[in-house]
Write a structure and sequence with these properties.
The radius of gyration is 18 Å and the shape is globular. It has one domain (about 5-195). With about 200 residues, it is mainly α. About 75% of the residues lie in helices and about 0% in strands.
Length: about 200
Amino acid sequence: MSELAAFVSLGFRHILDPNGADHMVFLLALAAIYRPSDWRQAVWVVTAFTVGHSITLALAVTDTLLLPTAWIEFLIPVTIVATGLENLLIRDRVRSARRWRSRPLFSGVFGLVHGAGFANYLRSLFADRVAVPLFGFNLGIELGQVLVLLVATVILVAVDHAVKRLSWTTRLSPVRLRVLGVSVVVILVASRWAVERVPW
């Protein structure tokens, strides 16, 4: 196996590793509000997250930017809680056009935090050459994210259909019920992680 392929595999497995579940939960929080017809907005948000974490990953692994591990590990679940709260607070996204434009922005900022978390893991794996490991690891992360988002989309659409079949008497749409349910679970899980990782 080539060096590039090895680091692609490493990045892919890092995203899917249960020990790195915080990144998967963040992706779930991002995906929770979207329907298949919203794919353009979803692409912008995921692209912004990718750009953000790619920048920090590159800066951190080259020692251009040194960030305290304890604070990064604490801030990652904080970004998840913030995303879940944003999901709950914005009820009508069609009317909130400004919110559609701001979501990629905060996704990119949160990507900066997650990139630092990836970097803390990657930095110890190579000594001299940076370009190939960095590119390969980042590519593997992206492939892993695509897989997580595809699986999340299938599950969320299945939840929507299940809610419709149950014919619950409610003024909320199946999508809104799904957003509420997923976001509350995500907030509870990430809040626990944040409390466990408080760096002070």
